[in-house]
Amino acid sequence: MIERRWGMFHRWGPYVLLGFGILMSAATSGGVGMGRDAWYVAGALVVAAVALQLWWGRLAPAHPGPSRTGAVYYALRWAIAFVLTWINPFFAFYAVVGYFGAERLLSPRLVKPGLFATAVIMAGSQSGGLPPDEELGWSVFGGLLAVNIALLTVFAHLAEQEEQRARDAAATIVELERTNTALQQAMDENAALHDQLLVQAREAGVADERRRLAAEIHDTIAQGLTGIIAQLQVVSTASDETLAREHLGRAADLARHSLGEARRSVHNLSPTALEHDALPEALKKTVAQWAERTGVRADFTVTGPAEPLHEEIEATLLRIVQEALSNAARHAEADRLGVTLSYMEGEVALDVRDDGRGFDPLTLVRRSGSGGFGLDGMRARAERIAGSFTVESEPGNGTALSARVPLVRHG
After folding, report:
1. Tens digits of per-residue pLDDT, 111-140?
2. What is the pTM of this model?
3. How many CB atoms lie within 10 A of CB 112?
4. Which ranges constitute the DSSP H helices of 295-371?
5. Could you give the angle at which helices 134-216 and 108-126 cross, rounded to 10 degrees?
6. Which residues of 333-350 are buried (b: 16+ CB within 10 A; e: fewer)?
């Protein structure tokens, strides 16, 4: 807006100031002794000033900065203003435009001479007209010229400081824009890296599940099938009917046990509890079923606004709760258990607490023979998705498990 206003002043200001100078000169022509011939000359110069301004109005858009054409325009305008002010001091109103826009028209080495030349016209007008009369007139002219130059120096210094502040502000804005651009690029790169980490975590989880399933098949189902074959081989060679029935019963028991192990392995591979329910509902049902099966009072609580999470995050939290409940059922001997799911800004927290017999966390806990993951497995699950897992417990004072994972929204 300021630039537009200055542009309007540079375009229309000379016309307005010239018109005001004409009015004041006409009103004071008798007092300054302007005759008919002086008016003829002034009229011709006024026409020349208008023509010069029209000529520059057409050329100005092509010369936005200092140029030779701009210097010629400035010099011609100064010459017309000088002669008009010589004729009548009140034409100095037109000469005052020389103070404005000198930096736009003149090269840096010509700015000060141009301002000095304008100050000469202004001092001559202020001292009573050009040329000064006698020694006193020259003294007054010299003093006024010195005052004008001093004022020019002060205002030029202030203008230079203001321009420097404007340049510094512009440089700061450019630097802020560059920093914001770099920050946005970094955020985009972090988002891409985060997505990549999630993909890698999912792939690692799949690979881990495959290794776990292979190990369980080898340790349980394969051994069960081997035992069944051994029992059937005994039956095929047994002559005693009672002995054959006994081995057939053992084979049937091994088959049922192996079928149970197969179902458990498939269940652990894919969290079916999340197929139809969101994480809070799935955890609530899991805790309720566990409480009904074990007879232990169990409560489930959700804090914060629940929202759908990335499927890998939900599956990990569900697996941790399942393993924690399994551990509590086997080892805790608790009377009460609580599970809390907390949605926070940028993070999801899962806490499982019981009032059971507890243990010493510094003691190495071996993996159970039932194929469970244990504490190390729960910690590995949380860390696989850039989370953390902590255990607080002591003998006789229960156990508190806490998992914290990033809040990554679904899709």
Report:
1. 889 899 999 999 888 888 888 888 888 888
2. 0.42
3. 15
4. 311-327
5. 140
6. ebeebbbbbebeeeebbb
